[in-house]
Specification:
The chain is an alpha/beta fold and about 325 residues long. It contains 13 helices and twelve strands. It is about 35% helix and about 15% strand. Helix 1 runs parallel beside helix 13 and helix 6 packs across helix 8. It starts with a strand and ends in a 14-residue tail after the last helix. About 40% of the residues are buried. The structure holds glyoxylic acid (2 copies).
Length: about 325
């Protein structure tokens, strides 16, 4: 008999087949308590769990007494109670490498679209406002040769630095927990403390996971330290920023603009003040959302679960110490 797994995400047919070659798969809509109740038997027998975005907490784990591995179709895993997984020796697998270049493209998109006001002016064209040659009220600011500040120099930060350095001739500052030698030698990136970065950068790009240390790392104080011409970009996790402080900083002109792919609450409520600010580009968490990359992430997550349940945890494992 094949081991049982719970799938809480829609997979392309070929990947579902790959999963079914190895496991008896019970597919569910989500991991809400009602859903778990409805499929109690399947949850009780599942050794694997695969999906994304839903909360995986103690309450869920208590319904899954034989669970051995979880696999998320994402790089971020702040929705998992990792301590609870560790305490039960349950592996957590994620997809760190396959999305790096795509997320870096998204970051560059935010840099360019905020600086050049792409969304705003395109909307004005659609509204029929382009009736004569354009004047300064349509102009943006340059990106090339401006100073890029990267907060969080992981794989994605590196891929952004590569684009900025070679493609846009941007001097790069970075702040991270550790010095990143390759960033310094390849992209001439300069390590600095957060305050220096905030004071000197024209673009402040936040690419941090959400942890106890990063929650609300950016608040009123940080925005005040930024240049009034600075553009703030966040494509990591929303709660790393105190969103009400960001809104106030934008409203008071403490910073020039913001490009955001992530928010404290997602989907972003339609009445968010962010949506009435012309200098905000708000994207629906599309960092990795291309057909190619989402396919590759799903394939990686399927392989990760197969590997984990076969005791192969040499890569993509958040907590290999539990085996
Ligand atoms: C997306 O935000 C991810 O964590 O993969
Ligand atoms: C994500 O893969 C990162 O390390 O930034």
């Amino acid at each position: 008999m094949k081991p049982s797994v719970i799938l809480y995400k829609t997979l392309p047919d070929d990947l579902l087949q790959r999963l079914e070659d190895h496991f008896t798969v019970t597919q569910v809509k989500n991991l809400h308590p009602e859903t778990v109740e409805q499929h109690a038997e399947a949850f009780a027998h599942a050794v694997g769990l695969l999906g994304s975005s839903e909360k995986v907490d103690v309450a869920l784990l208590e319904k899954m007494p034989v669970l051995r591995a979880t696999s998320t179709v994402s790089v971020g895993y702040d929705n998992f109670d990792v301590d609870a997984l560790n305490a039960r020796n349950i592996l957590l697998m994620h997809t760190p490498t396959v999305l790096t270049e795509t997320v870096a493209d998204t970051l560059m998109t935010l840099v360019l679209s905020t600086a050049r006001r792409v969304v705003e002016v395109a909307e004005r064209v659609k509204a029929g406002e382009w009736t004569k040659s354009i004047g300064p009220d349509w102009f943006g600011v340059d990106v090339h040769h401006k100073t890029l500040g990267i907060v969080g120099m992981g794989r994605i930060g590196m891929a952004l630095a590569q684009r900025a350095h070679f493609g846009f001739n941007m001097p790069i500052l970075y702040h991270a927990r550790r010095r990143h030698e390759a960033a310094e030698t390849r992209f001439n990136a300069r390590y600095c403390d957060l305050d220096t970065l905030l004071q000197e950068a024209d673009f402040v790009c936040l690419i941090l996971p959400l942890t106890d240390e990063t929650r609300h790392l950016f608040g009123a104080e940080q925005f005040k330290k930024m240049k009034s011409s600075a553009i703030f970009i966040n494509a990591g996790r929303g709660p790393v920023v105190d969103e009400s402080a960001l809104i106030a900083a934008l409203q008071q002109g403490e910073i020039h603009a913001a490009g955001l792919d992530v928010f404290e609450k997602e989907p972003l409520p339609v009445d968010s003040p962010l949506l009435s600010l012309p200098n905000v580009v708000a994207l629906p968490h599309i960092g990795s959302a291309t057909h190619e990359t989402r396919y590759n992430m799903a394939a990686t997550a399927v392989d990760n679960l197969i590997d984990a349940l076969n005791g192969k945890v040499d890569k993509n494992c958040v907590n290999p110490q539990v085996v």
